Structures are given as structure tokens and as C-alpha cells.
Amino acid sequence: MAEARASLKYIRISPSKAQQVIDLVRGKDVDEAINILAFTQKAAARIIYKLVNSVVANAETNHNLRRDALYIAEAYVNQGPTMKRIRPRAMGRASKIRKRSSHITIVVQEREAKGV
Hints:
The protein is α+β, with helices and mostly antiparallel strands. It has helices at 15-25, 30-38, 43-62, and strands at residues 3-11, 70-79, 83-88, 94-99, 102-110. Helix content is 34%, strand content 34%.
């Protein structure tokens, strides 16, 4: 089965925050997923919106897949490297600040034709 994929790496957003938005669109048709992302008020929604548009363009251009038959077959977020920072605290102590990053991957496939 033909598939197209697109991924973003080293995105400066926490994987847990990106995972919430990815869960909204996994398994949906691409047009429905784009509509969901356009009206989702999360920072990760804008990033994933661009990624879905990119993977659709990859599917149409490189693999000659039909846009109206595409759905999001796989969508996952992996943890990227964490930048470690130190923040001064009371009485001469210090605490860690972890600035997390993510790797986001989306795979689309064509749905099988029904009733042929």
C-alpha cells in the first residue's frame, strides 16, 4: 500500500503537549484533520497543521495519491533532546529547568475503495 510521510524534528514543544493534539487527528481523513487543527487552540495545533499540509503535498506530488482518499494512518510524537537550564532559588540554591523538544511524524495512506 502506498504511503507518504513527513516529520518535524527538534521542535521546541513538550512531547506531552504535542501528544494531546496528535491524538485528536489520528485515524481521521486529512480534510477532517485539517479542520480540527484549524480550530484547536493549542500551540501544537499550528505546528501539526503545517505538517499535515506538508504530508498531503508529499502524497500528491511524489506518490500520485488522491487527496480525497487519504487518511492519517500513523501519527506519533517522540521525545527529542532536552536543554537543561538552571534557575537561582532562595538561600543560594539552584533548580533545574528542562526545556523539552519533540520529533513529530505523520504517515498518510489511501483508503481502500468500498464495494468494488
